[in-house]
Predict the structure of MBL fold metallo-hydrolase.
Amino acid sequence: MKITHYLYNAFLIESGDKKLAVDPGGLMFYYFRFSPLIPKSEWNNVTHIFVTHGDPDHYWHADRMAAVSKAPVICNKTMVQEIDGKYLLLGPRDKGVAFTTEFKNHHKLSVDETIEVDGVTITGIKTTHGPLTVKLGPFSKTLNPGRDERIGWGAIGFKIQLDGKTLVNLGDTLLHKDEWESIDSPDVLMIPIGGNAVHNTMDIPEALQAIRIMKPKLVIPCHYNCPAFFSKNFNHADEDEFRNELEAMDIQYAILHKGDSIHV
């Protein structure tokens, strides 16, 4: 199995005839760019598309990838509404909470629900997106997830079982100690660590708590030191600090930068 990371929470997971794309979003307004995180050259052979929530850096290109690949989209049931007899998903590039986009093939699930999609078993995991504070010079604005707010809409994590391996991807989330105790020793855990300054996800100490609970065989940190707005290191986190803590815990890890891969 090959896992490739493309910044934020964008991953490709390849095993046999399966090619799973997680969060095919775009650059987060980086100098007004919304370029795809997962290269278009990879889209054609994607077999499954996972969406952890509706923020632009996770979801911006989901419909475009689906149109090219014809792959099913797996997401939280809150990402879908039935309107005038059609099942419409949250519009990837619409403002606010607008259900405007018809995906030809989608599968929705809830937390703790398990479904099987074309040979891949998927269980929904409880996650909660934290508030996002954006600073531009002396000005700052905090976006809080809520009933009518786009930020963090549809947040859910995934436990993915494929070819005898269990992978966990949490998307953007705060810590959930009690809800994650049932996740036991996954082969791979993809976990955000960049919440120290921005607070929309766990920071390093909180991620380490989650790792102690789940006891994964391999950890891949994500959603930190990302290009966003006018910064090259939005969601800053200290890789060396995280690496040292994992080594002290005797946990295997892979620090993957843009386009880096690991075989597991």
Residues 97 and 150 are 5 Å apart (CA to CA). The chain has one domain: 2-263.
